Amino acid sequence: MGEVYDPGQDWQLPGPNGIPHAGSYGSGPGSGGGGAGFQYDVETLRELAREWNDLANEFARDLNYAALLQRAQGPGVEYASGGNAEQVRASGEALHSTLTAREQYCRSMAAKFQMALGKYATTEDTHTTDLNQTGGSL
Known about the structure:
Layout: H1 42-70, H2 79-133
Helix pairs in contact: 1-2
């Protein structure tokens, strides 16, 4: 297994001739060059899932502000007030669409980390079972 991503570590992206560091994309040292991806420990997976969900919650809260813009009314009954309010409502619609997409993206990312946690637990259970069947212990 290659290096494990540590969010507190001072790491850098690989350059053209660089070697991937912890958390960078690609095959890590000693990985045999077989695959691409990241490697995380259980605590990091949990933290990343929580952070993505927290960010999604912020976008969801901001939808309330977009709703205010979507309902904007002009201060007067003349054309300029109505035209201005129409533009503000259009901005509110665009903001609502963008925030909804961002929230969905964040929830999707959190779900990916949760799925990785599930796979991690399944792998641990399988290895424990295999080890116990051979008479070993952890």
